[in-house]
Write a structure and sequence with these properties.
The protein is mainly alpha-helical. It contains 8 helices and no strands. It has a single domain, classed as Leucine-rich Repeat Variant.
Amino acid sequence: CAALISTEEKLIVLKQVQELIINKDPSLLDNFLDEIIAFQTDKSIEVRKFVIGFIEEACKRDNELLLRLIANLNMLMRDESVNVVKKAILTLTQLYKVALQVSFSVSDMQEPCWDMVTQMKEDVLALLDSDNDGVRTHAIKFTESLIITLSPRTPDSDTPKKQEGDISLDKIPKDHTYIRYAQQTWNFIYFFIRKITFFWTPSTPPKKSVLP
């Protein structure tokens, strides 16, 4: 019974399964997905953090899995443990790009997925005002990544080498059915201003934003 084994033993087994179904034989991923995700309610913080990492790796391996797993990540981002929340924010930083990538395919689940990602984005931005230094730092990192992702790139853009292949706003069709280009451009400006405003008072917790 999983409840009777130690956290360390549980993590060893889970990591072995992840290695098998993501790296060695991805054809097994769909078969074992629900079994791994079931551990999102485990009592161990480390196990719940593992599930978050698994969600990230699974969605990177198969972008379409985000449509199924975004709700699980949303739940974990509301966890009672600060460490779990921080891990979820880091993962959303990566999966926001996956959400944009998924927007190119056709599925009834796309728009609800994007709506949830958008709400989670707003939740993380609200954490820029968190009293917890760690959470606030992770929210800043998320905002920085968001600014880069939503920055329309041109041939003259100075893009870091490791981010050259990442999706960016300019790759989204301007007539996309649910991702509105103009709105995302405004978001880019808004996030940039928020970041600048945040760093105006580095020695004190950030004040509530007066931006809309």
